[in-house]
Every structure is written in C-alpha cells, then in structure tokens.
Fold this protein.
Amino acid sequence: MNKLPAISAILLCVLMISTPSQAKKPGTEMVKIPKGCFQMGTPEVHLYFDQEPNDRERPAHKVCLDSFYIDKYEASQRDFKKVMGRNPSKLFNDDWPADHVKFLDAVTYCSLQGKRLPTEAEWEYAAHAGSTKENPFGQNFNDYVWHATNSIRTPHPAKSKKPNAWGTHNMLGSVWEWVSDWYSPSYYQDSPQNNPRGPKDRRSHHVIRGGSWADDKSLVRVGSRHPGMADATESFLVGVRCAQSIKGGK
C-alpha cells in the first residue's frame, strides 16, 4: 500500500502549526480578499493540449468564502531564498518567480511566515477579482498575463505585470501556483458550497492553478486546473503564493 499520501498529509499538518515567533518575513505584501460568493468552474467546453475536454473544470457551481489575505505577488527567487535558505529554480534571477518548487517546500515556505497555501476555491476567487468572465482582462489580457506568445519563452519579474481588480499580480501566467487541495477530476460534482477544501480522501496529487509563461494563451484561464507532481519534475514551472486566514472570516 502506498503510504506517501498519508506521510504527506502528516507533514502538512505539522508544518501548518508554526508559531509567529518562528516566522521569517521576506517582505511579501498581502491583499485582503472580501467575503463573498462566486461561480467556480468553467461552463464552456474547452480542449486541453492533449485534446481532452475540460470536464475537470465543470460543472460551474456556486461557492461562498470567508474573507482572507493572499500574497500580492508570487514568491520571487529572492523571497524564497530568504525564507528557505536555498533556491530550487532552474532559471536563475532573483526577481523572477521561484520555479521547480515542490509541494511540501511550498507548504513550508508559507508556514515559516505564519501563512498557508490558499485553497483552490480561494485561489480562483482571488483570480476572478469580482469578474464573472473566464478572461477577466478582456482585450487587455497581455497587460496582465505572461504566456507563451508574449513572454519570448523566458520568465519575467514577479512584479512586472499590472494587478487585477483586487490588487494581485500574475495569478494567471508567469508560473503555476500550488494550492492546498488534493486533486480530483470529479470534485466539482459534489463540492460543498461554503469554504470548500477539496476531497476529504487523500489523493496522489495536489492541484496547481494559473498556467505559466510557457503555456499557450488558450490554456491560461482562471478555471484551468491540473494535478501537480509533488516533486515538481514534470510540471516544473510551479511556484508559490501564500494565503492567511482572518479571524472570524470578515
């Protein structure tokens, strides 16, 4: 029997209880995301790069969340090194977002600052930033998102694109981002409405969101979700953005 998911879950619980006295501050700003409801998922049919339909993003369903904080930027390589003492990235520049981040390293990075990974629902809610559209930026998409067409196949600084309506940068494109939920392609069919946290049963993958600078523009969508490899060897352009709960959720 494979014990890795169980071990991963135990480590996750241990890391999430770090005290404020243990926190290391990289200076990453956070923005407050308001309490509210939204339609999570994608009602339209799309094809992924492997020509599979995006059934994992459907059905679109109502989700309501308490207020929370989320990092304004993805962790830069400078931020990651300051907290973790090392840089996992394969493409080096202190201002670029950290890449090749393993899931447990993402959990540790957030935990050492008294933060946590966002849930999948929190991530998508913050990425929509009040918009009901799959593309919240319309014709100005390139002003907000790095993708394969406009990136010239290279990373760019974590703070180099405009913020969305709620003040977060590069939630789409740049690098994929870890969220705390276990991945299930059918989870949206029975997801609870209030503050969903993913499948209760342990799976082999956690979810990554947002797309990267190496992905085609058509794949860089708010609703796009994929299983991330825990050791970041396959989905290598994966970084981290942390969240923080608000007492009382208001």
